[in-house]
Amino acid sequence: MAAVNKRELPPKEAAVFRNLLKNYELRQYKKGLKLAEGILKKHPEHGETMALKGLFLNNLEKKEEGYEYVKKGLLKDLTSHICWHVYGLLYRADKNYEEAAKCYANALKFNKNDLNILRDFAILQTQMRHYDALVDTRTRLLESKPQNPPFWLGLAIAYQLVNEPHNGVKVLNTHAESNIPAASTDFEKSELLMYHNMLLEETGDFQSALDHLLEIESQVTDKRSWKEKNALYLVKLGKKEEGEKAYRILISENPHNGAYIKALLALKEKSEINNVLTDLFAQYPRSKAIEHLILEHAEGESFKVKVEASLQNGLRKGIPSLFAAMKKYYADAEKQRVIEELVVGYSVSLEKNGTFGADSAKEPPTALLWTLYYLAKHYDFHHKLEKALELINKAIAHTPTVVELYMTKGRILKHSGDAQQASKVMNEAREMDLQDRFINSKSAKYMLRAGEIEEAERVLGLFTRKDVNTVQDLTDMQCQWFMTEEGNAYLNKKEYGKALKRFHTLEKFYVDYFDDQFDFHTYCLRKLTLRSYVDTLRWEDKLRAHPFYLKAAKGAVQAYLALADKPAGTDEFDEANMSEADKKKARNKARKAALKAQQDQEAKKAQEKDDAVKQKHDKKPVDLDPEGEKYANTEKPLEDALVFVKPLELLAPQNVEVHALGFEIYIRQQKYLLAVKALGKIARIDKKTPSLKTNLDRLEAAVKAHKDLDPKIKQVVDLELTEISKL
């Protein structure tokens, strides 16, 4: 009661306090701060005003002072939902979603039906993927204000996210019956109807989904999506003839979409496929998707005839990507043999007669060049590197001005293990076309692999902004390949701090991708882009399974393991084998080194402070830790390494490398149960993994050497090892 009495303001100040909330909503922070200070002069103990003053200060870039005032306000009035809400807003601004959620939960204890708090809480729950709790919050929002259309849509999406699309359909049906319009434009109406159809599809009731689709056809503006869903539902319901017609319409509109063609072929018997593809190719001769499917399904002499036409056309036109297109057929040994036989024959015939065969017409001189180029890539693919190098040199001698030839030569040299020479050749290619950003990046990549880090940064700087540092610009552009390559370059040089700095920079990209969703939780409900919104949420959940994240994780774990394995006290001198004079010298040297280190540290702190002030005024980012000392000096390298591995264990459970990285961490942490589980997963995925037997022996030896190990843990590990040996 005392807190409530303190909370009440006289009418004049109460009116000013209401204006504070409007100032915040209108982003008039300076005006709001002035009004808050006016109230506090007369009522210095008013907790809610203190909290709002802290909020204004936080938005005026005075974060520490802002937090201080919010905490003071909260202490003055612990039962105020406004104080707790403001505290949550501060945490949310710092992207500390867990703490923000706790604050919102406390705010709701004291004001269960505050719309602003419930709405903010729902956004936070979506961001943190607390979908079960989200359903409850969205239900409360809808009950509080059923005339608000986004609340209906929010609840439908919440049900979809907890895999209850049938409840989502009920919500949309009830909303439609309530006659509360959610959409104002044709596009918005179309998107809402197609989202309703998406929910029907996810219930598995394809007949209802098809009936609904036909019902809404005239109102849908996204005609392509409508046609795709129509074709899909017809096939799902076993209506093959109608499904075939639907897919043929889609193919006529986009014959380059391989998914449409494959869906059509799935409706045909195996014996019909070649005829269907031949007819389609006659209709759409420029479709590469159809051409590749013809080659995929052709066999024997038929394949030879058809691939010969494709090869000759590609070599005649000089298509550099011809090998990449043909490589997919190499999985079939017979098709690979046919292709190799044909191209080798072409190279012989072109050198002798300038034709592809005895009865063929003369070909342009470039046909031989691209044939040699194809064969060089072919032999490189099969690791016949000497033969590949011989052929690419022959191609360069034929026409020494083609950039792709030097790029392929650099690639062959890289595969042969000569990183320095590969970098040199790739740089020659770059210098042949200084306007090409792709070859510039490729050359820099090879330089990094050769350990030429400074030169690589210089080369990349030719295409980055001139007003900022090259690395900073690549960081701003979230250039993932650069971070992984330069991180690995530093790793090879055993500069672990710098390596970890690059890997953590890449990891921050993924944090940013995740944080960037936040504003869309409300935006998409207003704009009704609901299908794209749900797809984005699901895509974000799997994002860290991306190959670049795996590369960075692998490099970061290797660096952290190297730091963890570094013997303790490596920098200390060994007094046992020293004379008294040497000991005295060593101690003096150590004392001077410690003093210098302290002075350097103080100087560094002063510099960092100056840089921070400068950065605040210049608005230009300043790297306060260029050497990555923060990462190199970590006291818990194994725990830091796990930060990279944990997401991958969930998102890439079939990747052997992920579990191998986990094993290396767990065995060092002496977490033998987790270590043996990691090896068990590797064995079940691929028991022929080369390192598996070695790691099993390592684990067995570690368990035996651990004298104080709990017998129950040892027993479980032994049982698991026995099970793995049976696989």
UniProtKB/TrEMBL annotation:
Q: Which GO terms describe its cellular component?
A: NatA complex
Q: Where are the TPR repeats?
A: 81-114
UniProt keyword list:
Repeat, TPR repeat
What ranges does the record list as Basic residues composition bias? 584-594
Q: Does the keyword Zinc apply?
A: no
Supply the source organism for this entry: Mucor saturninus
Can you say what this protein is called?
Uncharacterized protein
Q: Which InterPro entries match?
A: NatA_aux_su (IPR021183), TPR-like_helical_dom_sf (IPR011990), TPR_rpt (IPR019734)
Region labeled Disordered — which residues? 572-631
Q: Locations of Basic and acidic residues compositional bias? A: 599-631
